[in-house]
Amino acid sequence: MDFKNDLKEKALKEFYDLFKKFGFNSFKKINLIINRFKEVYYKGYKGEAPGQSWRVWKGNLFEDLIYKLIGFYVENSNIDLAKETDLGKKDSEIMQKLRDQTLIKYTRGEILPDSDVILYNKQSLKVLAILSCKTSFRDRISMVGYWSLKLKEKSIKYIFITLDEDEAFSTISSKRKKARLILEDTDGAFILNENVKEDSFIKNFSHFKSFLDNLIKDNK
C-alpha cells in the first residue's frame, strides 16, 4: 500500500472508532481528523507540489469520511450507497442500473453528474439521492445548481455537503448570498461548520440525520 492510501486507511480507522463512541455526532470530529492528518501528510509526502497534492487528497478523504459516516448509520436499513467510481464497474449489474438512472443524456452523448455519494434502495435499486461533498464553496460550486436541475427531471434529490473552509456560510456576506442563490435548486445544503448562519434552507450538518431518518422510513 502506498503512502497516500495507507494514510487514508489510518484516518478512516480512526473515524470508525469515533463513530462507535459518538454515533452520528462523530461528524463533529471530521474537521479535526483532516487537520491532524495534514501535518502527517506534509511530513511523509515526497512528490512535487505538496500543496496541490494535499488539497486533492483532503478532498478525497472528506468524501470518504462522509461516505463512511452514512454507511455506518444506514447499515441496518434498506438504504445502500455507492461512489461515482463504482458506477464504472461494467461487471456489476447493480452499478450499471444505478449508472443508467444517474446519467444525464444529451443529443450527442451522455455524462454523469458530480456524484460523490449515491444513496439507493437496496431492493428496487432506485437512486434516491446524490450528494456533492466539497471542502469549500469555491470547489466547482457553479455546477451544483446545474446538476440539481437536471436531476429533478429524474426525481433524484441532490444534496450539497461542505466543510465550509472558506466560511461562505458562516458569515453574512456577498459570498454567502451567491452561494445561497446557486444552491436554491438543490434539495438541501448541510454545513460542517458550527458557526454556520442557518436559514430555512442552509443547515448545520446535524440536521442531515433527519434527512437520513426520513429516507430510511420511506424505504422500509
Provide structural commentary.
The structure is a single chain. Helix 5 links the parallel strand 5 and strand 6. The model has no long low-confidence stretch (mean pLDDT about 90). The longest helix is centred in the first third of the chain and has 24 residues, at about 50-75. The chain contains seven helices and eight strands. It has helices at about 5-20, 30-45, 50-75, 95-100, 140-150, 175-185, 210-220, and strands at about 80-85, 105, 110, 115-120, 125-135, 155-160, 190, 200-205. Helices cover about 45% and strands about 15% of the residues. The chain is of the alpha/beta class and about 220 residues long.
Q: Keywords for this structure?
A:
single chain; 6-stranded mixed sheet; two-stranded antiparallel sheet; 220 residues; alpha/beta; 8 strands; 46% helix
Specify Rg, calculated over alpha carbons: 17 Å
| Rounded mean pLDDT score | 91
Low-confidence stretches: none
- SSE string: HHHEHEEEEHEHEEH
Estimated helix fraction: 40-55%
Strand content range: 15-25%
- Biggest beta sheet attributes: 6 strands, mixed
Q: State the secondary-structure class.
A: alpha/beta
How many individual helices?
A: 7
Please state how the strands of the largest beta sheet are arranged side by side: 1-4-5-6-7-8
Oligomer: single chain
How many distinct domains? 2
Distance separating the two termini = 39 Å
Instruction: Categorize the overall geometry.
Output: globular
Number of strands: 8
